[in-house]
Write a structure and sequence with these properties.
The complex is a heterodimer of chains A (97) and B (352).
Chain A: E1 13-14, H1 24-28, E2 34-37, E3 40-43, H2 54-58, E4 64-65, H3 73-82
Antiparallel strand pairs in A: 1-4, 2-3
Chain B: H1 11-27, E1 36-37, H2 43-53, E2 66-70, E3 79-83, H3 86-93, E4 101-106, H4 113-118, H5 124-133, H6 136-139, E5 144-147, H7 157-164, E6 167-170, H8 178-183, H9 199-214, H10 217-232, H11 238-260, H12 269-288, H13 292-311, H14 322-351
Parallel strand pairs in B: 1-2, 3-4, 5-6
Antiparallel strand pairs in B: 2-4
Helix pairs in contact in B: 5-7, 9-11, 10-11, 11-12, 11-13, 12-13, 13-14
Classes of the chains: A alpha+beta (97), B alpha/beta (352).
Chain lengths: 97, 352
């Protein structure tokens, strides 16, 4: 069974007018959220988006926006307690310097 | 070579630097101008890798960022970019037997590629700076960099091109596919683009779920101790028997949940965790033949523990989103607190 997460929560948005069909979003997406249709990228499975931000970061034409972040409860809770943005804390403890 | 990222001022840091040098010596076969990494893992690498999986010294499990060679690289050899977590470097180099290549190790503070990309330490700025530091343009006569696909959240390929002149080629997700990718002339097969999360992937992660989860044990033990004192006015070894259900709830949330993940019926980690914790409570009640109140108390106290540990697995999985996690927590955390408070009140009231 494929592992799927909550529906209708992702902040991913694609502006087709800005899309040039370069296809880099298809390349970098780890969950096959996009496909090419009529020489443009379209979202084929929005609910698979994990908001990693790879597509938006690599879109040279600003056609994609997403509030990128780590889908990590610990990070969200640490952020709540410290009143900051979600912080991925488990691996950042630097013991050097 | 770039400067050392580790400052050796205090005694503690000196030790960790010595450790690092040892780590590097164990994988470097010969030292020329550019160190060559071995493509075989020795027993020390395996032991250290196992320790990192169990959280022993993993914050210091790094190798020095910079340029390394694999086998006999020349100016035409491909350049593979990776993170300076040693477990990551090990995974890459062991796949490159018989392949001549360069490995450009970025300073990700000992974090793997995907996690580091998420916070942009595996990022455009670090990459561009590192290319300059190692004078990559003088080492190779091409302008291509192979970046692991999961590095993409941190790297803007068009920016790298603009700032360094190097063209980013996104390679496969997994290091094991690198040889095939190179043989195919840097073509990624569709299958190499997908992230999976197999039973084996999850099993190796369990120690780092279980160890932090067990940190809750003393807190729970304290609660049982208070209950015992109020109820019996003395302490007994029965403490440990009464702890068993709580230990079961911890194991359900940090081991069983991870194993069963694809089989659990709901999308929400909180709900799946609650379900698993509820079944655990039910099973234990039947096993220990508990009476009415205790069944109720366990039904209220145990599932939130399991659900809390389960939802904390989201950070380790490969498919959960920030928005989803926030939604789950907004509803789940108040319910967990409520359930636990009810359980505690009922348990105390039942004593008197």
């Amino acid at each position: 069974m494929a592992m799927r997460y909550l529906k209708n929560v992702t902040t991913l948005q694609l502006d087709s007018d800005k899309c040039t069909g370069c296809g880099v979003c298809l390349t970098v997406c780890p969950h096959e959220v996009f496909k090419m249709q009529a020489k443009k990228a379209v979202i084929q499975d929005k609910n698979k988006c994990m908001e990693c931000g790879a597509c938006a970061k690599n879109c040279a034409f600003d056609a994609l926006t997403v509030r990128a972040g780590v889908g990590c409860a610990t990070a969200v809770l640490v952020g709540l307690v410290k009143r900051t943005e979600p912080q991925c804390g488990c691996q950042t403890e630097s013991s050097c310097c | 070579m770039s400067k050392s990222s580790c400052c050796c001022s205090s005694t503690h840091e000196q030790t960790s630097c010595k450790e690092k040098n040892k780590l590097e010596r164990s994988i470097i076969q010969k030292s020329g101008e550019i160190p060559i990494l071995s493509t075989t893992l020795n027993s020390q690498d395996r032991v250290d890798g196992w320790k990192a999986r169990w959280g022993i010294g993993r914050m210091n499990y790094t190798i020095q960022p910079g340029l390394y060679g694999i086998n006999k690289p020349d100016a035409d050899s491909p350049v593979l970019v990776t993170a300076n977590y040693k477990l990551t470097v090990d995974k890459v180099r062991k796949e490159l037997m018989g392949i001549d290549a360069w490995i450009l190790v970025l300073d990700t503070k000992g974090i793997n590629v995907w996690c580091a990309a998420g916070k942009s330490t595996f990022g455009t700025d670090e990459l561009v700076q590192r290319i300059e530091d190692v004078q990559l343009a003088q080492v190779v006569n091409h302008k291509k960099l192979i970046i692991p696909q999961l590095g993409a959240p941190g790297i803007a390929a068009h920016e790298v091109k603009k700032q360094s002149g190097f063209l980013v080629k996104y390679g496969p997700v997994y290091a094991k596919d690198i040889p095939q990718y190179l043989r195919d002339g840097m073509k990624v097969q569709p299958e190499m683009r997908k992230v999976h999360f197999t039973l084996m992937d999850r099993l190796v992660l369990i120690p780092m779920e279980l160890m932090p989860a067990l940190r809750w044990a003393p807190v729970l033990m304290l609660w049982i101790l208070i209950v015992q004192l109020l109820r019996d006015h003395r302490l007994s070894w029965g403490l440990f028997v009464e702890f068993v259900p709580f230990l079961a709830a911890i194991l359900a949330g940090s081991v069983l949940f991870q194993i069963l993940l694809p089989l659990l019926p709901f999308r929400s980690f909180v709900i799946n965790g609650w379900l698993l914790g509820g079944l655990t409570a039910l099973g234990l009640s039947a096993l220990f033949d508990h009476s009415g109140t205790l069944v109720l108390v366990h039904a209220l106290l145990l599932p939130p523990i399991t659900a809390f540990l389960a939802v904390n697995f989201t950070g380790t999985t490969t498919f959960t989103s920030l928005s989803g996690v926030q939604k789950e927590l907004a509803i789940g955390v108040p319910l967990m607190i409520l359930s636990i408070l009810c359980g505690m009140v009922i348990q105390i009231v039942s004593i008197f």
